Amino acid sequence: MATAAITTGTPAVPSNGFVLLINGTNLLNGSDTFDYVQWTDPAGGSYQIGLSPDSVGAYVYSVAAAQIQVYIPPALYSTAVTSPDSVTIQVFEFPPPSSFNLPLQTSNIATFTLNPPLGLTLSGAALPPGVAGNAYSQPFFYGGTPPYGPNSLVSGALPPGLPVPTSGQLLAGTPTTPGTYSFTLSVADEWGNTKNLTESLLIVARLQIVTTGLPPVQTGSGYSVTLGALGGFPPYTWSATGLPASLTLNSLTGALTGIAPAPGGYIFSFTVVDSTGATASATLPETFTPPPLLFLTTSPLPGAVVGTPYSMAFQVTGGVPGYRFSLVGGSLPGGLTLSSNGVLAGIPTAYGQFSFSVQVSDSAGNTNSLGFILNIRPAPLAITTGALPPATVGTPISITFAASGGAPPYSFSGTGSFPPGAQLSGAGVLTAPAQTAAGSYTFLISVADTQGNNTSKSFTLTVSVAALVITTTSPLANATVGTAYSAGFAASGGIAPYTWTAIGVPAGLSFSSTGALSGTPTAAGSYTLSVTVTDSSQASPLAGPLTATGSFALTVSPAKLTITTTSLANGTVGVAYSAGFSATGGVTPYSWSLSGLPAGLAGNSSGAISGTPTAIATATVTATVTDSTGTKATTSLPLTVTAPPLAITTSSLPNGVVGTPYSAGVGASGGIPPYTWTVGGLPSGISLSGSSLSGSPTAAGSFQVSVAVKDSIGATASASFPVTIALPALPPVTVTGVSSAGPASQPPIQTGISSPFPVPITVNLTLTFAPISGADDPSIQFSTGGRTGQETIAAGSTLALPALAIQTGTVAGTITITAQLLAGTQDITLNPAPSTTIVIPSMAPVITKVSASTSAGGFTISVVGYATSRQVTQAVLQFTPAAGTTLSSTTFTIPTTSLFTTWYGSTAAAPYGSQFTLTQPFTVSGSTSAVASVSVTLSNSQGNSNTVTAPVP
Nearest CA to 320 among 285, 286, 288? Predict the structure, then answer.
């Protein structure tokens, strides 16, 4: 008799005890009745369990040639099993009765893991909620014997982005769509124990601030804005930076209240935090506007009077202080001006009503204008002529009377005693012929204006013979030898015309009877002239005409020696120079001496300067001239020697290419070397060293490069040059991925270039789908959502990251992905644009789920699946009877072509691609419990689907 040997064994855990599966050789012999298994539990208890090969006993489920299935009831383990532990198993084999003299045979001792009691339970009352766009990972059951699976979705739907966990205990992924999702998952452990778990999972939107703008508010007014947020897990807590002192943010409600501050643009930064600590931020601009710019001054303005000083200041309110006023319509009254600070002032020159418009502008550029009326009254009417000067016998009389005020034109009239032959015009001019006798005359002058105002004034005019007087005073203006001279004598009184005589006139001058001394003096000296004037009158019959005599001193000076040169031209270092001095007066010939000349220049005795300056200088040149009598004259004049003009000689700079070495130089002339160079506006990657530009450009664009040079004495010159940095040619582009893929899969797609590019490339991918038949499948999109996606090829790299995946949906057809490439904002896509295609083949139908639900008198079978060709021709349902029962029919073949053609052609099917739910009711004669399960197979022109079995409850 061979010894039993345990080779493998695994305890499983049903709900009411342990089952030991023991594999080995020679475990039992066919006639033994005393064989047993010894069990030792974790607490050390040891039990022997008899085995019977001939019948199913209390402890034996089944016996096979090399396997024993032993049931160990709960009474045989002494401690509760709450976590995995170890037990030991050994098989004892007794000899047959005919061979009791043989020894007892024992197997090896095997160690097994004892798992917790059979049964799978949820990890908590409910799954914790998740956030759209955030990774989610949560165990959704425990217990049983790992490894777990296969798990499957029984009903409902998981949030998009969370795949069905086909194995393990973790529900993990990144949910993409907020909402509440209810679903039932079927879970299984290693031994096939299963349990359906029904859960509800809340996915909330990511926390975000939904307020996108703040309204402009007038300074000084009340301010109230409540910020809004969505997503995350309320309650929220708000904070802000950049707020003026007059505004306050309520951290609990997000209400921003207070008084609008000073005008201007502000930037407010807001942050909201939810109950989990998640944050969202937004930066919002706000503008506070000044109050309206208005005039406080009203029309009409305070009145004015012609000839009376007037001043009035316009008053405004609102706007931004720093007001300026200007006339924008009409015209101001004569004599008045409007200053920029709003003062209307002056002395009116005309009366009447004047209309004009004044505009005010504030420091922010706001303006307002208003029309005004100013009434100007005339001044009081008055005769402004004062006491009349005496008239002289023999001189015609002409007196013009003047008036002011009132409303011109004026009309004059007179009464009383007037000189003989006198006449008064309406314009106020009194004229009379030359009087022949002395006398005194008193008369009244009246004036009237156009408005009927009048006034009068009394005047007295005396006519007399004036004494004859020479009015010219001594000494006379000096004369100079050789210089033309002219002087006139005048007299008053007596009766003109006058006759003049003189004695003692210097040589070269003459004296006329009209009193003119003129000529060119020839000799220097001091002279005294005796001058007599005689009038044409006869004061009395015996006295004869009147005369007057006077003595006048006249000095005749020699001509003055004078240097006439008043300036010297500037010179330039290294450039020939020529200049000279000149003089007048004195007695020629002249002799010159020069001092203080800059280096490189010399002067001679004729007053000439010549040579070539050798250094920059600011000199003062002193020149002295001496005439033949020894008389000297001196002057000092500045003479500046400057450097040649500093100029940049470079006429242009070359263009460049991103990533390609760049080299250029700049040059200058003039000034005083050495030069110092500065440059601005260079493309990134290029720098200046001395007078050389070098480097490798890192960005494309058009640049305006400004170059400045300074010499050793601080002189400067500048120039500006356009430089264009172009992108290099784009290397060949490929869009790689699979050429075909199955439905409901996510094959990756990635864009690449054959060689690195020096700047980042943004790849915009566009997905289009052409179904073999029927409508589009909206579920065909990028894994990131939608039919547009974006990748980035980093500078210096050849592959776009992150790679995107394509959700292939459930409809047969061709997916085309086309790439657009951008360097910054520049479109560098090659023509034709790079693209690739993925073919989704036509396939036999696929069943993803079968379920059954009972109702009075029968049950309904529901089949969920898809058919990429949008064709299902028949459904075959195979029923399995419950144990101990029979069914009259077990197989049903249902034609479905018309049903599915109608479904796929309807608008209701469009959002689902080729997915479907087929429900088939059945009426049962008798009890539905006679049916244990149903197996479903679908067919179309491409073949048969997978067969899926489901229990019938």
Answer: 288
